[in-house]
Amino acid sequence: ASAAGQYESIANITSRDGLLPAINRCFASYNDSGAVQYRRDRNLPETFMAVLVQQQIRGVFSGVAFSRDPISQQGCDVVIEALPGNASKVVSGQATPESYRVFVEESLFQIQHSSQSWILPDDVVLPVEGSGDVPERLIQQVAYLARHLENHFSGIPQDIEWSYDGQTLWLLQARPVTTLLPIW
Question: For the chain, how are helix, strand and coil distributed in percent, rounded to 5?
Answer without folding.
Answer: 30, 20, 50
